[in-house]
Design goal:
With 136 residues, the chain is mainly α. It has 4 helices and no strands. The protein starts with a helix and ends with a helix. Pfam families: DUF5345.
C-alpha cells in the first residue's frame, strides 16, 4: 500500500465518523472556558471595578488648581525677568567701565563676543540642517 492510499483511507474514516478536528474542539473548549470564567469572576470583577472608580473632581477644585498653577507660573516668569534684567545691567555696567578705562580692550571684548555669537549661530544652523535630514 502506498502512503497516499493510507492517508486517503484515514481521511475517509474521519469523514465517515465525523470526528471533530482539533480546531473545532479548541473553539468549543475556549467557549466553555469563557463561560466558566464569566460565571465565576463576573460579579467580583464588577465589584472591584466599582470600588476603584476614580472620583471626578468638582469644577471648583479644577478652577482652584488652574489658578494656583497660573500664580506659580507668573511668579517664575517675574523671577526670570528680574534675573535677565540684573544680568543685563551687570554686563552693560561692566562694558561701560571697560570702555571708560581702555578703548582697545572694549573693542577686543566686542569683537570676541561678536565672533563667539557668530560661531554659535553657525554651529546651530548646521545642527538644524542635520536634524532636518534625519527627521523629514
Amino acid at each position: 500500500m502506498s502512503r497516499r492510499s493510507g492517508k486517503s483511507i484515514l481521511n475517509n474514516c474521519k469523514e465517515d465518523r465525523q470526528i471533530p478536528s482539533h480546531e473545532q474542539q479548541g473553539i468549543s473548549d475556549e467557549q466553555e472556558r469563557e463561560a466558566l470564567f464569566q460565571s465565576l469572576a463576573e460579579e467580583p470583577l464588577n465589584q472591584w471595578d466599582h470600588s476603584i472608580a476614580p472620583d471626578i473632581p468638582s469644577l471648583e477644585s479644577i478652577s482652584q488648581m488652574i489658578s494656583s498653577h497660573k500664580e506659580v507660573v507668573r511668579s517664575r516668569l517675574w523671577r526670570d525677568l528680574l534675573l535677565l534684567w540684573g544680568i543685563g545691567s551687570f554686563i552693560i555696567t561692566g562694558l561701560m567701565f571697560v570702555l571708560y578705562s581702555s578703548l582697545q580692550v572694549f573693542l577686543f571684548v566686542q569683537l570676541g563676543t561678536l565672533g563667539a555669537a557668530g560661531l554659535i549661530l553657525l554651529r546651530a544652523s548646521f545642527r538644524k540642517e542635520g536634524r532636518r535630514k534625519w527627521t523629514h
